[in-house]
Amino acid sequence: MKHKQQGFTLLEVLVAFAIAAVALISLMNIFSGGLRLSSVSEDYSRASMLAESLAAQVGTEYGLHNTPTNGTFDDRFNWQIELISYELDQLVLIDKPVTKLLQWNVHIDWQEGTKKRSIKLSSLVLMPNQPL
Known about the structure:
- This protein is of the alpha+beta class.
- It has one helix at 10-56, and strands spanning 70-73, 77-86, 92-93, 96-97, 99-112, 115-128.
- A hairpin with a 2-residue loop joins β5 and β6 (115-128).
- The longest helix has 47 residues, at 10-56.
- It is rod-shaped.
- The relative contact order is 0.14.
């Protein structure tokens, strides 16, 4: 008489559970990594928008002499504006420069867990020669 095997052995069931556990752990790591990168991307986007907003205010709100050059946004993002004036002697009217060249640097940094992240924007602006 032939004896047919009915069902799985305990060893086969344990191997199947081990393979399923490894696959699930790998999937969880992939999804959590994606969520973490999404959060980092959102922080960089917010910091970029803040830096662009601050840069747009250079010359109106923030000048060379009356400038609050640093601050905090949203209790998380620390910002700093650095303004550097350059002499420009190409556009001269009656021995007095008409314009000046202004370089602005906007630094934004923030803490994310144990990592410190930052961005920096820089540009040059041609400004009328008057005290800012």
